Amino acid sequence: MRDLFVAAVIFGVLPMVLRRPQFGIYLWCWISYMNPHRLAYGFAMNFPWAYTIALATFAGLFFSKEPKRILWTRETILILVLLGWAAVTSMNAFFPTLAWAGWVKFFKILLMTFVTIIVINNREKLNGVIWMIALSLGFFGVKGGIFTIMKGGVHRVQGPDGTFIAGNNEMALALVMTVPLIAYLRLQEKRHWLKLGLTAAMMLTAIAAIGSQSRGALVGMLAMGFFLWIKSRNKFMTALMIIVSVGVIGSIMPQEWFDRMNTTQEYKQDDSALGRINAWHTAFNVAKSRITGGGIEMFRPSVFQQYAPEPGRVHDVHSVYFEMMGEHGFIGFGLFMTIMALTWLKGSSILQRTKRVPELKWAGDLSSMVQVSMIGYATCGAFLGLSYFDLIWHLVAIMVILNHLVEQQIAKPVAQTETSMPTKMANPVPRRFGYKL
Question: Where are the domains of the chain?
Answer without folding.
Answer: 1-66, 73-407
